[in-house]
Amino acid sequence: MSEPDQKPKLSLAWRIILKFPRLSLEGFSDRFHGFFWIIILPVFLFCTFFGNLLMLTCIPFPFNIGTAMAVNILIVILLLRILVERVIKTYESITSSASFKWDMEKSLEDYMLILKKNEDEEKD
Fold it and tell me: Residue 41 and residue 23: Cα distance in Å, rounded?
């Protein structure tokens, strides 16, 4: 077994996925992140669907399938990297919490002090 401080080794597929480029939204505010994931990305995917239909009907036969597949593969690669990073972060947060030690006595003492201060303030 591995020690709790060591991270488990990722499989080859996950390491390859993590080498793909990533959509970087870190320069934007947190509000933009939500706006991106809730509005912009679904609209982009919806438009991509119609773009694929246009490519399949307007471009001659052997090239239409290749271009439509290339666009879809690029989208999947970009989004797959983000999803894999989220899974890894979630796994690390779950496994690292086991090493966190709760000091219940100190927490209880702090809570009792806060309650006592609140009671004293209410009496005054």
Answer: 11
Closest to 51 measured CA to CA, from 74, 73, 67: 67
Q: What is the Cβ-side half-sphere exposure of residue 73, based on CA atoms within 13 angstroms?
A: 6
pTM: 0.47
Residue with tokens 């307007």: 58
Kindly give, in sequence order, each residue whose CB lies less than 8 Å from that of residue 32, ignoring residues fewer than 6 positions away: 25
Mean pLDDT by 10 residues, the chain (124 residues): 58 72 62 74 85 84 84 81 79 69 82 90 79
Taking each helix axis as running N to C, give the angle between helix 41-58 and helix 61-96, from 0 to 180 degrees, rounded to the nearest 10: 160
